[in-house]
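Justification of computing resources. Each target in the renewal requires a structure prediction run like the one illustrated here; the chain below, 380 residues long, is used simply to show the kind of job we budget for.
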Amino acid sequence: MSENKQYENLSSFGSLIRVPDPPLSRTPTPTSKASKKLIELKSPNKSIDDEDELKEENGVLFWVNKSGFPIDTKTWERMWDHVGKIHPKGLEGESLIRTGAELPEVPIPQVPLSFHLNMSTYERLEMIQNYMKELQYNHTGTQFFEIRKNRPISGLMDSAKEMIRESLPIKCLEAVILGVHLTNGIAGLERFPISFKTFFLGNTHRHVVLGMYCSGKYGAVGMSRRDDLMYKPLTFKSLAELVIDFQDCYRKYWHDVKKVKLGLPISHNPHSYEQIQWKYLTLNCTRLTRMELARELDKHAREVKAMMKSVTSAQYSPRKPPANSSIQVSPRKEPTSIGTTKLTSRLDRSLTVSRASGTPKECQGTEDESKKDATYQIRI
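Resulting structure tokens:
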């Protein structure tokens, strides 16, 4: 069986075709087959102001509801216009749904906000994942909840409460925020984001799940079109074993994993003004063998465990990557609060890493000054 025929036997990974956005100017440009498909998918009445509401996930384009709830008329009609173009029955399928007099009632799933005292963390995560499955994956082409990654944790938790209140289908990024909210307060559980960038048939796909660590075991919760690309029970002995399992699952769908990005542990304080660190460590899987990938993941896991046990766990200092390496480490930003100035990073006072050359730059200060204060020590 040829490779093309094998691709044809697979169901579509996304609901839209990922192609570049058209130019905003009105000058005529040569149209290709890809651009014609994009024009068919987008509304002809789309204005330049709508560009901010067009996002991408899993290699497909989708709209984002920025009007909140109740949804305004513009967003509502745009969603149905989009559904009519991607629905298998086209406008007829849209009309049957909108004009249906006796549509089945959609049940509202029960939120797992309280657990029995004797319930294990494994069982709690399974309940949370089942709740997300009952919400179902959002195939409408319009993301109902706007998630801005640079918002503080307190603001993102408000979005999670809104998801529970509305009980609408969600996507992978929304599932991560919802998972953080539902796992807040579980003793001994550390949460961190894991992002994947994959390549399939000329399209770039992105996905994110919420990694979990508890009692020496790793797992994940999330939302995806594929069951084996979201929930992973707390049974993996190492972080490398968890990530490589995701990599193997992607291979079943003919996806090449290009990059894996890991964040830092997320605070359990729902009122925190810290931001989630989404890309603390970036691994280029195309330049690393499986053994090298596992070694870097295990090294990262050891460092994060040391951060968890440290008294000053609020401060993270990134390690220096080797020269000409496929590994990228992003320094963590300091938490900021309303009405106060941004704190000076401990990293800036000790050692910084140049992203361009990967070489350390010493900060100002002499050894004599550091010896004056014997109680203040920095570990690198």
